[in-house]
Model the fold of this input.
Amino acid sequence: MQHDGLVETVNRAAEAGRAGFYERIAAQGMAPLWHVLHGLVTETPKPAARPAHWRYAEVRPYLMEACEIISTEESERRVLVFENPGLPGQSRVTTSLFAGLQIILPGEIAPAHRHVASALRFIIEGKDAYTAVAGERTMMEPGDFVITPSWTWHDHGNLSDGPMVWLDGLDMHIVNLLSASFREGYPGRTHPITRPEGSATAEAGHGLVPIDFDHTSQTTPIFNYPYRVTREALDRMSRLRAPDACHGFKMKYINPLNGGWAMPTLATAMALLPKGFKTEPYRCTAGTVFTVVEGQGRARIGDLVVDFAPHDIFVAPSWAPYTIEATSDVVLFTYSDQGVQEKLDLFREQRGND
Ligand code: GTQ
Ligand code: FE2
Done:
């Protein structure tokens, strides 16, 4: 008998006498709900995902080693995937999210393909590398947040003389939960460029759109949110108002067409915690991936203490309480499934210790 989720009022002594019934219904492809109910409908979130931390200084040598053993051509994408220690072998950094570090060397091309899954790129190191999305290139710089919307052709290239590394965040686990995945390779290494660089930002990045602008996707039409602009916005906000007790100065990336999250499945934000700031305890149902853009500090996530440095990655699973303390000015990029949860009326949060 399966005891996980057994309803507490079930009389265990009486269960032996029911064994024959359970066997007969099993043969019919049926099972008693009272054996599993409280495992299916839990009192609070019970993520298998655990708090986790990867130090960039420890990860980076393996990225470099990956470059020696495989090309982008052979691998399609040279990515080392972060596996949550509670979900080994599943390519999940939280229950619903994928995270990996992608590296591309000078002169390499990551060949064009498209898929229903959406991707975000958060640039870690390097310069003069581009991603081309739906026929438009954008050059990427550290701290930029770059988007590959669902079903858009994309390839990546590195025109510099050094390696380029970014964090990939994808929603394929959400897509796959719903069995909605499609993918295809482009016939040819790169998709043709059909628009000059900067077109998307010119069209939609300045609080204006062409009067006949036609955009049906729920993903923002802007596909590079440059760090220069984000950092300036945070800096200005920090002079205008008090920090949020749980989040510091935190701003979300939005789709200017509807004011919602920039991507429907991946909720992204950037936080500035001034030196010495310590957040109040916070938890929410959206498991969250953090990467450190600037500064050092200490996060406590459940029982895990995370002493973080630039480019580290750490994870707060659903409903794990966390605090963050800034040793120097700290800037953190985050992504989560909060946008999905909000749309489905699932999102809950708890601020402070109440
Ligand atoms: O760069 O297109 O990490 O399609 C996983 C799937 C990166 C990409 C990933 C992808 C890509
Ligand atoms: Fe892709």
